[in-house]
Specification:
Length: about 240
């Protein structure tokens, strides 16, 4: 069976790594992700990952603790490196070849980001984890995902969430919310729906890069999406 997407960027939130915990990294969630990513690798999909850091530190909330914004954002970037290292270990335990790449130089644990080298890793079947966001403050890991996905010429961004897709309103608060199978970038903006932050969303819109928002809790979803099954919500056009 053919693949709909041959090169994907998977965006994972740091918060989802907590599992049932209040903070930190749940081994159960790490393995949950690693098993799904292995399915993609086994199908021959070139896979890149951007993971957030909210389970360890959130830059935006740092101001409440007296830490200034830029410093807090850099702390958040370091949190994504910790998550990237943890995910790398979990994937290697599944026999997946990986490369951890950091937008902030830390040569002992990660490669620096060099676009052509990152693409070469993907072509050789290695899973690339992009950590430290964009390397600049004021940008979220959503923006990093949009930027890197365009730079590596990904076919799609797959955004794993706790819900099945994009709804007309928050399904966790409104039981009457309806889910979209497909939706345009313009409609997402006009309805004020939260898919990614606006910077990230605009980068995708301007470069015609589709986004699929789906439930990462179901272990069959990722493989199903790349095969072309109608799972989650497709944002395009």
């Amino acid at each position: 069976m053919g693949l709909k997407y041959k090169r994907v960027l998977l965006k994972l939130s740091g918060e989802s790594l907590m599992g049932d915990q209040q903070f930190g990294i749940s081994p159960k969630m790490l393995n949950h992700y690693a098993r799904q990513i292995k399915q993609l690798v086994d199908l021959g999909v070139e896979t890149a990952i951007v993971i957030g850091g909210g389970n360890i530190f959130r830059g935006l909330q740092a101001s409440e603790s007296g830490i200034e914004r830029v410093q807090g954002d850099y702390m958040g970037m370091l949190a994504t490196c910790i998550n990237g290292m943890a995910l790398q270990s979990a994937m290697e335990a599944q026999g997946i070849f990986t490369r951890l790449i950091s937008a902030i130089e830390m040569q002992e644990i990660a490669e620096p980001y060099i676009r052509r080298r990152a693409i070469r890793h993907l072509e050789k079947g290695r899973v690339v984890i992009f950590s430290a966001g964009t390397g600049s403050p004021y940008f979220t890991t959503d923006s990093a995902a949009a930027l890197r996905a365009n730079e590596i010429n990904a076919d799609v961004i797959l955004k794993g969430t706790r819900v099945d897709g994009i709804y007309s309103s928050d399904p966790e608060k409104n039981p009457d919310a309806t889910m979209f199978n497909t939706i345009s970038f313009a409609k997402v903006i006009s309805m004020g729906l939260k898919v990614m932050d606006m910077t990230a969303f605009t980068i995708c819109q301007e470069n015609d890069l589709p986004i699929v928002v789906f439930n990462i809790g179901d272990e069959t979803n990722l493989a199903g999406i790349v095969r072309g099954e109608e799972i989650g919500t497709l944002v395009e056009g």
